[in-house]
Each structure stands twice: as structure tokens, then as C-alpha cells.
Amino acid sequence: MIVMPESMDFTHQRFSAIIYGSPGVGKTTLALSAPTPILIDFDCGISRVRAQHRKATIVCNTYEEVLRDVRSKEMSDYETIVIDTGGSFVTFLKDWAFRTQPGCKTKPGDFHSLKGFGFVKSEFTSFTEEIKTTLNKNVIYVFHSQEQADKDGNPTQRLLCEGSVRNTVWNPCDFGGYVQIINGKRYICFSPEQEYFAKGCHGITGRIEIPELTQTTTNDFMTKLFDRARANIAAEAEIYAPQKEAYEQAMVAGTAIIATITDADTANAAIPQIKGIKHSLTSEKEIGVAFNAKIKECGLLWDRVLKEYIPAPQETTEEGK
Q1: Among the four residues 83, 228, 264, 273, which has the most C-beta atoms within 10 Å?
Q2: Whether CATH 3.30.1340.30 fits 5-219
């Protein structure tokens, strides 16, 4: 189904995000501030989250168990799936590929890095898309960060993740935020800098302060951020509002004119009326397609000499000559 820009609805847009940073900076708690979350605890770290911020949690031993749980009817109660951590999830996928995918074992019986991580990267992307598209949920990956040196020797923060998957995981995600503490305050950064990579869209960019949580405050930072992103998308879509109204008026007028066509005379009379329509967006093309279909239905042809439509000549058989 082709959807035109003026008909797109982002009211229930789902997002995927990466939250990463050093241990103890509050990444999991931040991820659990998303709308109605459920945590897949690959790291067995839910106990490190303060009791008042804990949410429903899936504990599993294999990737197959993860798939069974996320596809179960119980998941209808949740809007967001939090993966903690993405690095441990990759380890689960590596185990799954080693056990189930042909070619992932070397002759000595070890993991085949080249082929194996190819399956891991592909499945990581498919899993993310299934959550967003099929299950219609947000997905947030929590990663630890790892300091490395760039080509000039400058320290940079990278995702702590095995193999080249650390680069692939960014592709299906809408947002990627690096969490750090600056002058005693926590920030999540959505614009890349020399020290770290980040990813922002839908107006979510730059460095945003994360409010300190107390006994009386609500843990809803990511919920508000997603709401803000949806509002920005809707605001962008509003630029089509005047064009959409003009498009609808043009389509009503064009449809009414085409309905009057029954023969060559009415077809020729309709031409200047259609040309007089004030078009918007795709109305001219759509009306043109509908007009040509009606001409064909009425059995008419365009006479290049007379410059008007005439009845198509009747085909005759050999016996009728």
C-alpha cells in the first residue's frame, strides 16, 4: 500500500533507541522510564535498580525463550521492551547461531566468527524490526560503554559489544544517547561528538539533562522524550494541511466532472472543466488516471486532427466485410 505524505499518521509511532554509558550511571532506570516497559534481563541486573523503579522482567536462558516470551499474549500489556544489556543479548544470539545455524561451527567445533556474526547481525536487526513493526512496541537497548583510542590517540566511548555488531546495532535505531555525568548532573547526549557517537532525529538532538529522581518524582523521562518526538513529527506533517484541503477539493471536483462523461461530446466538454481545477499534491495525476480510465470505458479515442475525442471504430470480422 502506497501512503502519500499528506495521509501519514504518526500518532502511534513506535521508536527504537540505544542508551549507553559507564556502569552505575543509571542507564537501566532511565530505559525503564519509557511507556509501560518490560525488561528482558540478560545481565541479571534488575536487583541493581531501586525497588520503586523496577518493572516486570523476563529472565531467560536462551534466545528461543526470549522469542517465545515476546510473542506471547502477555506482551499485549506492555508498550516498550527494554533489552539489558545489548552486549549480553549479542552473546545470547551468538549461542543461538552456534547451535542452530549451518556453517557457524569450524571443523574443530569452535564458533566461526565470520559466518556466525553475520547471522547475529542479521537476527539483531530482524528482532528489532519485529518488535517495532509486527508487535508495534518501542524497543530500548541498554549498553555499557568502553573507552577506546581513535586513530589520533584521543579517548572515545564505544558500545561494549562483541564483534562488529557494535556498529550494526545503530542502523535500526531511531535514537542513540550517551549518558554521562557533568558537574554532578546526569545528561544524555543525542548529537555525536569527538568523544562519543550518538544519534538523534525528530527534533531530539543535543545534550539533555536527566532530572534527579526522588521518592516523589515519576520516572518518565523516556516517555516524555517519545511524546516530544511524536509531537515534532506531527508538527512537521502540519505543513501539508493547506495542501491536503486543496487536494480534497480538487478530487471532489474532478470526480464529479468525470462522472458526467458518457460519450464523446461529454468527454470533450469535460476537458476544459478539468483543466480549470486548481490542483494540489497528487490530484492532477490521480484525476488524469481516472479520466483516462473513463475514456477507455466509453470506447473513445483521441483524434489528433480534430483534436477531440471520437468514438473508437468498431472492429469488424472477416464475415462482416
Answers
A1: 83
A2: no
